Recover the amino acids of this structure.
């Protein structure tokens, strides 16, 4: 699968899972929170397969997942859940990209 297609697929899957996890939570502006989370997680899923670094796929995923999650974690002051899901999703997407991306 091409890296662009894989990035779109991984981005949609990761964003959808993350937004689904947010459904039971309450926010002052839930629509904005869920849209922001969708875009941020889609970006992680799209970027990881399309970045070329001389590291194993899982390491690239972990690095990009944490790096792109840091702004949201700082702004919301909810570092553990945001960085945790970013790191876990990044690891998984990095492994997938290393295995199936061409």
């Amino acid at each position: 699968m091409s890296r662009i297609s894989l990035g779109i697929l991984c981005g949609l899957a990761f964003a959808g899972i993350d937004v689904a996890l947010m459904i039971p939570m309450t926010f002052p502006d839930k629509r904005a929170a869920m849209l922001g989370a969708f875009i941020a997680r889609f970006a992680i899923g799209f970027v990881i397969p399309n970045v070329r670094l001389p590291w194993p796929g899982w390491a690239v995923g972990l690095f990009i997942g944490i790096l792109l999650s840091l702004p949201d974690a700082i702004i919301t002051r909810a570092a553990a859940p945001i960085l945790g899901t970013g790191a876990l999703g990044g690891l998984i997407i990095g492994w997938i990209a290393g295995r199936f991306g061409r």
Summary: The CA atoms of residues 67 and 86 lie 9 Å apart.
